[in-house]
């Protein structure tokens, strides 16, 4: 192919993603943009307004504008959003890394509060937003949307995976039987997903412990960890379970057992490789959202009255704020009732930060919206188009505007901790808190004489988490770690036999 | 979707890869099989016959048989071989890692011999096989194959990427002008691909050196290295250059400059992550080849006379042996004429090993065959089908039978070095030879007083490589490394500021 033909194809590359060359063009563009995001994000690191998600969004928007102008308004996205792409390739690394890097001690110590906010809180938010949407939108004329669509809106903007189960129910006949069935389905989904994740994690720990003692191979171990983590997610998808839950708990289990069974090199490699993959996936996603925001197709459908679009987006945004407030403040109050010391209570400043931090809708909301309201990336119906555009608007606005205000807000509300709190909960910076430190912390605590053996039921009732942790530690040391490995139960190995140690020969 | 529907879809999952659920099934299967390959490969590590490529092939074959029986002979592959998949996703990591891990000192010291064998040798092999194919196959009745097809066969079984340029020429009018044009095209391709790879490598080194001094971030650096390496390959594909050459030289440059500019954690991570990705890609490929070997479609087309198929495969195999021998022995002889000491000469035992080791056709042959002889993974024409089946047979036979005989052969021919030579040149074991050791070696040599400053033209003529290396070292230290970084030119940094050192808090 001469250069002339290549140039032609590049110009036409934006139309249709079926041609091989078009996909080569797309991939080139996205990889180059990803590099630009990393570089710019680094340069703007000290900036008080902009973080990396915002950088990615802005770069995506600019690119979308450029493509729009180049193709004279025909198309702004050169990669059709495929739910496959998101749910099968982008989401798993993000969630797995979250589980892998979670500070287990803090996570399980505050498990009750986390479950309260996470499950009950999401429910409250879901009902608030759904009811608000039904109450307000049914009075406006925005096309063919039914009860199911409004509930989907509630789910999308509360954005928890398990809530998707709702979409499978016949919502015209809601009665006690349906509610019970829903609850039962929810519990089944939750428990089996968690079990699957834990099972795969333990299996990987056992396999590596049995296979590689005495004959380590860093590359094989890393490959095995990566593949089994991904397998857990795909198995969950195959069995119609919650892939997010599965891969999250798989990450937790792997970091507790499997990670300790491998060589030192493997530990460093997996820790950073997982974080890097998660970072790339997130940036790619925000990049895409930014580019897709200007997709003419959708806006043409929804552009009957721009005022209505803006109105709907504002209402949704308002519902998100109200929905989150509806559970953060009441539940914090409830949670504080159970705390004895003032130090453990959640102050009102912290409550505002918690409320604020969760306002930013992101990756999962977009994906759910696309999943619900499009066919193969193209929006056909008027009502659906409005929902997509509104979701995109809400995500963009919340991420960019709320995101920009976050750093100053935290500095204002919590001045003492402003140098350790990051503006974006999922920012890679927060993921650098090393596993090693957190594990060291937990070890230290275990070793001290501060742990009093719970000798009565009263102690169990007054310090439930403490007691549970004590018995878990005994169970873990007596049964789990001897079988599955874990820190202190596996001999140290710096690298593969044929490998020099990390510090050799520098 | 109830479990009943899921079961149905799983059963039907083998038909058609368009459905989402079918791809979930495929991915599950492949990931599970990859894990099985790793485990089995490890268990069979001490086996004298079987290496990991063979293990992957066998597992693929068995799975193909199982699927064939399950679908009652309808289809044996559940993932249509997409050239995109291979050329865009599987091949880049394999080639990049090869470049990244290459022992640069040995590579460039023996550069002339390598080029001789690689370029001239491949040419000889190509002509031998093509002429042999034309001479023998045109006498047999195997369907519609023209001169271009026979030359393609020569290219496929000599398997060098640059030779693909030949496929674009009008082969009915071969004259001096065409030959010159071909040579010119070849040189342009070779030089620009190499230049692009070097350029992207240097760019990444420069960027990381400028951006991250004083403020390292391991995850960003690793992400940047990965993305820029992949970008180099995709740019080459976009500009119709040789992606393989580009990404190979990008790997070499990155290992010389970029790798030294990053944190210690990044160094460990990238070294192992690249090797792991390469390993996974190769295993996946052999798995697929094993599964696809039993694709009924192709064999139906080619099964007019099984005897003819076997005959053709045998002839091709014979041509491969002859073609390789046609250059290994003569060129070794030529190369030995330039060596002074007996120690540097290639002994006849080593020549046999060189000849043998290169017989095993692999990934690139399969991909090229598919590229040339199929449309979207389905073989339509009789002649094409025969070529595909023959290629698969040759690859399977050479990998498995020759592969199995390699370890014993080497032990027989080169008993002294049998414990360091691996049977499979691309086996991950050989990739464990640490960069660190090889770099240490080259540093030591540079530091010793053994390097005599070449003071005359006579020295340049008598020890060309030595002289070139001397001047390269001077140029590198004076100009390149100060600008692009490299060992000794960048302050040591163990990890990101927020990271504990690798050994902290264990």
TrEMBL record, chains A, B:
Keyword Ion transport listed: yes
Gene3D superfamilies: 1.20.1530.20
GO BP: any one term: potassium ion transport
First and last residue of the signal peptide: none
Family annotation (Pfam families): Na_H_Exchanger
Localization terms from the record: Membrane; Plastid, Chloroplast envelope
Membrane-related topology note: Multi-pass membrane protein
Main localisation: membrane
Catalytic activity: K(+)(in) + H(+)(out) = K(+)(out) + H(+)(in); Na(+)(in) + H(+)(out) = Na(+)(out) + H(+)(in)
Transmembrane region(s): 22-44, 56-73, 85-102, 114-137, 188-208, 242-260, 272-290, 310-331, 352-373, 385-405
Stated name of the protein: Cation/H+ exchanger transmembrane domain-containing protein
């Amino acid at each position: 192919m001469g250069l002339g033909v290549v140039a032609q194809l590049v110009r036409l590359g934006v139309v249709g993603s079926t041609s091989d060359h078009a996909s080569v063009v797309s991939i080139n563009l996205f990889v180059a943009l990803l590099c630009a995001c990393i570089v710019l994000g680094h340069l703007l690191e000290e900036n008080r307004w902009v973080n990396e998600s915002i950088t990615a969004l802005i770069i995506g928007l600019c690119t979308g504008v450029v493509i729009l102008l180049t193709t004279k308004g025909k198309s702004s996205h050169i990669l059709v959003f495929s739910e496959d792409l998101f749910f099968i390739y982008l989401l798993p690394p993000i969630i797995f890394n979250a589980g892998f890097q979670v500070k287990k001690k803090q996570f399980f110590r505050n498990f009750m509060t986390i479950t309260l906010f996470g499950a009950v809180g999401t429910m409250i938010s879901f009902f608030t937003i759904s009811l608000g949407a039904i109450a307000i939108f049914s009075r406006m004329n925005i096309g063919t949307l039914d009860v199911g669509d409004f509930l989907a809106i509630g789910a999308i903007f509360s954005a928890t995976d398990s809530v998707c189960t709702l979409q499978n129910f016949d919502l015209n006949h809601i009665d006690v039987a349906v509610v019970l069935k829903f609850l039962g389905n929810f519990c089944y989904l939750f428990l089996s997903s968690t079990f699957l994740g834990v099972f795969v994690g333990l299996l990987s720990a056992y396999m590596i412990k049995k296979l590689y003692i005495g004959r380590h191979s860093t590359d094989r171990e890393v490959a095995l960890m990566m593949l089994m983590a991904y397998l857990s997610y795909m198995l969950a998808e195959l069995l119609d379970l919650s892939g997010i839950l599965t891969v999250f708990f798989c990450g937790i289990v792997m970091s507790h057992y499997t990670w300790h069974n491998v060589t030192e090199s493997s530990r460093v490699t997996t820790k950073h490789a997982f974080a890097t993959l998660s970072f790339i996936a997130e940036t790619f996603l925000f990049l895409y959202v930014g580019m897709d925001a200007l997709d003419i197709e959708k806006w043409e459908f929804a552009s009957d009255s721009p005022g209505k679009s803006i109105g709907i987006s504002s209402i949704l945004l308002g519902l998100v704020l109200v929905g989150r407030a509806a559970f953060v403040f009441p539940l914090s109050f409830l949670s504080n009732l159970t705390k004895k010391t003032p130090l453990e209570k959640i102050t009102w400043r912290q409550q505002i930060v918690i409320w604020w931090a969760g306002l930013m809708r992101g990756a999962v909301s977009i994906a759910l919206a696309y999943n619900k309201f499009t066919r193969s990336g193209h929006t056909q119906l008027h009502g659906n188009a409005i929902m997509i555009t509104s979701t995109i608007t809400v995500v963009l606005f919340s991420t960019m505007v709320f995101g920009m205000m976050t750093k100053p807000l935290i500095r204002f509300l919590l001045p003492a901790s402003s140098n350790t709190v990051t503006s974006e909960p999922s920012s890679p910076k927060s993921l650098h808190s090393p596993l090693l430190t957190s594990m060291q912390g937990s070890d230290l605590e275990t070793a001290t004489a501060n742990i009093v053996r719970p000798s009565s039921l009263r102690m169990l009732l007054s310090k439930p988490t403490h007691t549970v942790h004590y018995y878990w530690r005994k169970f873990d040391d007596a049964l789990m770690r001897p079988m599955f490995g874990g820190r202190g139960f596996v001999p140290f190995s710096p690298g593969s036999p044929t490998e020099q140690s990390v510090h050799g020969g520098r």
